[in-house]
Automatic annotation (TrEMBL):
Keyword Repeat (UniProt): no
Pfam family, any one: ABC_tran
GO molecular function: ATP binding; ATP hydrolysis activity
Protein's recorded name: ABC-2 type transport system ATP-binding protein
Its membrane topology: Peripheral membrane protein
SUPFAM superfamilies: P-loop containing nucleoside triphosphate hydrolases (SSF52540)
Main localization, broad class: membrane
GO cellular component, one term: plasma membrane
Amino acid sequence: MSTADDGDAAWGAADFIELDGVEKVFDVRRKTGFLRREKRQVRAVDGISFRVPRGEMVGYIGPNGAGKSTTIKMLTGILTPSGGRLRVAGIDPSKERTRLAQRIGVVFGQRTTLWWDLPLKDSYRLMRRMYRIPDDRYAANMARCTELLDLGELLDVPVRQLSLGQRMRGDIAAALLHDPEVLYLDEPTIGLDVVSKSKVREFLRDLNAERGTTVLLTTHDLTDIEQLCKRVMVIDHGRLVYDGALAGLHEVGESERTLVVDLERELPPIRTPLARNVKVEGPRQWLAFPASVSAAPLVAELASAYPLLDLSVREPDIEAVIAKMYAGGADAGTGARIG
Ligand SMILES: Nc1ncnc2c1ncn2[C@@H]1O[C@H](COP(=O)(O)OP(=O)(O)OP(=O)(O)O)[C@@H](O)[C@H]1O
């Protein structure tokens, strides 16, 4: 019999994913001499606590080696925490991995869960058997994913012949055939071209709006977060260092976006109080402005005063935002900054 603490009854709408002081320590052996080995401990996750309500889409970001994948692996039950308490839909993932598997979907951008040599549709048939998906649900979900992810012409193609973007859409469909309530996405847009990225983002937005699927998204692409998540959590060295809105993160990190301006001809560096001129290369100029403000006034000013051919905005990358966040010092934070 399950206790109130372990059973589904214990979770409410306010806390679909719950972590309290979760830790993961790896023992690593390193060769230090001919016959000598040194044992060392790596604290990949170092006392993380957060809650994600049902239906929320949250960004989970941080530099390489910060502990993101380790957290996701603990949330799926692949890894057992070394300490702390973790629940997903009231279930302890490492104790009831199979029961949890029915309720979660996982997409790792750098690896596929599809069978490499089989046509896409055969992978889906295998998943249908693995998850024991009822016929009507399978048919409805296949139809929906095929249409929205544009998979129609790909179903008969072996996975090895798909492009990265096609394979990613195939993987997302595979993670959703059993109607998971929560989806973990680890770098779902990595290596994709602009069109494929926007297709994937649009699909995720619709999924969340229509089905209320809870999404935890790990990415190095700030545009993913900007377009999909109201809330972002930043992890660094295994600790949660920020939990709040993306705009707040920009303020903490004082990060900048860059407006790339193509002029009709070479001109002296553009000077304006709204931006900092960072580079001039022939008729192209780069203007940096605070990421927390709109580009519209700057664009309007340039359009009225300069012969413009084209404009584009470049987002700061996550590493740059986090680096600035640390450079800002301990008192640079907002209420949302942690630690
Ligand atoms: N199985 C393991 N054995 C030993 N150390 C590990 C293991 N898995 C991860 N680590 C270490 O734990 C730390 C966190 O790794 P993790 O893969 O969670 O980071 P990440 O934030 O996902 O990084 P990335 O963005 O590069 O994928 C790193 O120092 C990594 O080397």
